[in-house]
Design goal:
The complex is a heterodimer of chains A (199) and B (571).
Chain A (H helix, E strand, L loop, with lengths): L30 H4 L20 E3 L6 E9 L4 E5 L12 E10 L4 E7 L9 H12 L5 E6 L4 E6 L14 H8 L4 E2 L5 H6 L4
Parallel strand pairs in A: 3-8
Antiparallel strand pairs in A: 1-4, 2-3, 2-4, 4-5, 6-7
Chain B lengths: L8 E10 L7 E9 L4 E6 L15 E5 L2 H11 L7 E3 H9 L10 H7 L11 H8 L9 H22 L5 H20 L1 E2 L2 H22 L6 E2 L2 E2 L1 H10 L16 H10 L4 H11 L13 E2 L38 E8 L2 H10 L2 H8 L3 H8 L13 H16 L3 H8 L3 H14 L1 H17 L1 E3 L5 E3 L6 H26 L3 E6 L2 E7 L3 H19 L7 E7 L7 H13 L5
Parallel strand pairs in B: 1-4, 4-5
Antiparallel strand pairs in B: 1-2, 2-3, 6-9, 7-8, 10-14, 10-15, 11-12, 13-14
Helix pairs in contact in B: 1-6, 6-18, 7-10, 10-20, 11-12, 11-17, 11-18, 12-13, 13-14, 14-15, 14-16, 15-16, 17-18, 18-19
Classes of the chains: A alpha+beta (199), B alpha+beta (571).
Amino acid sequence: MKKPETVVGIETQSEVPDPYDLSNLQLSQSFTETSGVKKLLTTVPVRKPNPQDWVRVHPDPAMRGHFPLIELKDEREEYVIAGALVPELVGEFVHKTLYTTINRQGVVSLWPVRLPDPDGREMDWNRSAREAAELASTRWVRVKANRSLGAYEIHEAEGIIAEPKWPELTFQEIIRIAFRDRLVTSLDHPVIKRLRGVA
Amino acid sequence: MIMPAAFREIILLDFEFEACSGERPVPVCLVAKELHANRTHRIFQDEFGAAPPYATGPDVLFVAYYASAELGCYRALGWKTPERILDLFVEFRNLTNGLSTPAGAGLLGALAYFGLDGMGATTKKELQEAIGTGTWRGQYSADEILNYCESDVLALERLLPLMWPEIDLPRALLRGRSMAANASIEHAGVPIDTTTLDMLRDKWGSIQDQLIAEIDSQYQVYEGRTFKQELFARYLQAHNVPWPRLASGRLDLSDGIFRQMSKAHPTISLLRELRSALSDLRLNDLSVGRDGRNRALLSAFRSRSGRNQPSNSKFIFGPSVWLRGLIKPPPGYAVAYIDWSQQEFGIAAALSGDTAMMEAYASGDPYLTFAKQAGAVPADATKASHRGERELFKQCVLATQYGMEAESLAVRIGQPPIVARDLLRTHRETYSRFWNWSDAALDHAMLHGSLHTVFGWYVHVGGQPNPRSLRNFPMQANGAEMLRLACCLAVERGIEVCAPVHDAVLICAREQDLDADIESMRAAMAESSRTILKGFELGTDVAITRWPDRYRDERGAAMWARVMGLVGEGS
């Protein structure tokens, strides 16, 4: 056991400590300051929220962005295309908005929602997902696919009043974590080879 | 050894004393060594004067091993309590709390820990027992007893320089101060209705059989005096009571689980009392002196949290709560049981600085306020209008204090796990600052190898750290600090504290002094809470028992009434 640093070494102590004077005896209980630990965000899934999850979307517009993405349907994986490759891969990717999202368990993810086509057409699935994401910037929502409706049902939680605790990271940092091994920077990338049937 | 220049003298001392069950100590001899003067005092029974023959005063350090025993002798002799007390037992416990030690925490254990041999400090069991039981006369000479006593003082002299560099003296002296308060509490003892106790002891064998016959008729789980697990399983199934199981699949029959389940399923409560009465209770072990006071060694600083750990069978505040009905003030007196309201919740709120939690504490009903803060009940909800919701949130708060997981909470509240998970999550969200602090406390323990209280009581992280226990340490151990300080203040202000009980005290006072003493005790408890909690004050509740009434604990009232019915007495 180490003596607290606030205690004067007894060998040099010239006054008898007074156990009836408690004014200078209290030791800090602020473990938050002394533990020196912070949680690192090392994994950020890119996916639409699970149908059971209540989620919030970060309200700051700087915490969302549009990206060219290739979605591998079977693997349910999204790959982001480096800007220089975009002209060469027209038709292979779609533009999606990535919303920074958090669920009630504090799991941060990126919610991809497809942007309307260049001609402005938009499927109900994407429109309803976008509406849900916008709504989630101020309320806890849950989205569930309704096939007969052809769109997402949006559920809003009336009883949850707690605000989410967002990680102290920029959007760029979150993107970097989410796509650290899913960034397509050359035409030799295995994803491109598979799409072109050369893998 | 370098000693602090400030102390004019350092006294190492040890008493030998008779310690018959429930009685105050009767000093047999004392050996004291003045270190600076290098002078040894050997005093036998009839040589004790009106005051110690060695240096005293605030500039004299009194050093002992488990000092409340020595200070009990001081009280018995009418000597003034020393002002600067260093208890090497307490400091050894603080140094090794949470770690394994080669030979326990006694004087020999401390010597072994520091690599010193036990020569000169051998326990000489027969001699020790003869002194303790007062049967030494005619068996041992004064010299033999003094030599034995001096061997412990010499052991202290060898131990002190090794421990000295590890001792945080200002706080060690505060702990020493609390050992003086403990000596005073042990001196007072708890007033007992010895007439009823004698009657119970006399008839205990037949009472036990009658209790089984009477109580077990509604459970059908006993065969003779044996509790049958299969029968209990059948009872649980028939009454649809989910019961926690051990990893082996067998029902968990520990008293902790019974206590927990009794809260969720009150019908179990009586069975728990019966089990306790049959298995734990040895009425003859309850140590009551000729003056009708229950006295047991408080075993201060024995638990990891620094709380007392008195013998369950010797101390009236052991687990058999119904037996507390034996507590009865003498004629003209009253006892008051004063406890902090929601102490653990209040400590957690204040030390973590969680304002929502502090607000809930200050509301007087933290459970209902928690439900309001979580949006589960309207702002104007009351205990009467939302009893069910309040109970759920109460169980959730208690669950977090026990470090309970969702599955256990679900069993306790009799709801599916998803409800329990949501409740626990709501607690985390509503009191996020508390949880950050709790996480940080655990991180601190794992990173630095220890956690400590406001006044420097440490728990060290050993080979197999228990995260739940570490998380709970700041609440439990600072609660212990709070109780110790309150007892110091109360005793020093002349209140007769009979017993410290986890988060409460029992005091005794003459009828005409009762109100003033209660007020003074509550003020001491309030002051103590403010000192520990950076100015945040915890409230207290009082239950008064005036002669000729007896103390009553609701949890044991039914059992008490039943036993009294069996022995033909009114309750």
